[in-house]
Amino acid sequence: MPSETVAPRVVTYTAIGLIAGIFAGFFGVGGGILIVPLLILVARVDQREASVTSLVAIIPTSLVAASTFLVSRSVPLDQTAFGLIIAIGSTITAPLGAWALRTWNTVIVRWIFIIILLVAAIQVVYQLPDRNSHLEWSTATVLVLIASGAAMGFVAGLLGVGGGLLIVPLLVIGFGVSDLTAKALSLIAMFPAAISGTIGSARAGAVNWKAGISLGIPMAVASTLGVWLATITPVEWASPLLAAVLIYAVTQLTIRTIRSMRKG
User: Tens of pLDDT along 152-191?
Assistant: First the structure.
């Protein structure tokens, strides 16, 4: 059961939610890489509760942020279906990733993922996306998106990081689509995955709903500002900022991996 000894500190969760919401909307990621450390350090909750609370907050945030991208007309409405296709793969493999986390030695997988993120960080700086480029229908595209979603879900379940860190650079680099489209599709794919993960945690009695709502509402509201900033930020600036986030993720994952190796 999540801790109930102290009532959720509304001001603390609101502040974290506002920061994380802007982050999530701007980069098209769930924000767990930022939320979880802040909840642990500032709100003083444990790792598990921080992860579950972050997942609850991602539900309204991903819905609002993705809708804002579409309403802004920076991303065509017909791209929505591609995000749902990605979600098919991620929903199937997320439980497999969670199972692998309990049964595998994850150190090698962690280092492989760290290298992939590092390469992606370097690549996005030099490969500026075309904001007029979007996905087009083909059998190959659908199959690759499902496979990408599967990788996204498996990595999220196995390593406890948001799949957006993987799917956004993959869409930009691999498919050459607009960075705004990549962010919107990442958020769309996150919505059903977050619901599925939250249901599983709720069944286990691990969800602190007050904390999740206290974090999720301001996060969802602030995500609209993040999306707006993303749409007005020139791609020449957006790409280095995305690379910086990937480097930050690499640093966090490297620290966690080294700590787990020392404990092992």
Answer: 878 776 665 667 888 999 999 999 999 999 999 999 998 8
Beta-carbon contacts of residue 188 (< 8 Å; ≥ 6 apart):
62, 66, 80, 83, 84, 86, 87
192-220 residues labelled b (16+ CB within 10 A) or e (exposed): bbbbbbbebbeeeebbbeebbbbbbbbbb
Measure the CA–CA gap between 239 and 27, rounded to whole angstroms. 10
Rounded CA gap, 253 and 213, in Å? 27
Alpha-carbon span 200 to 98, nearest angstrom: 11
Distance CA 201, CA 13 (A): 20
Point out the least confidently predicted range of 43-52, 132-141, 168-177, 182-191: 43-52
Report which residue type is found at 4. E
Q: What's the predicted TM-score (pTM) here?
A: 0.87
Q: How big is the chain by its Cα radius of gyration, in Å?
A: 17
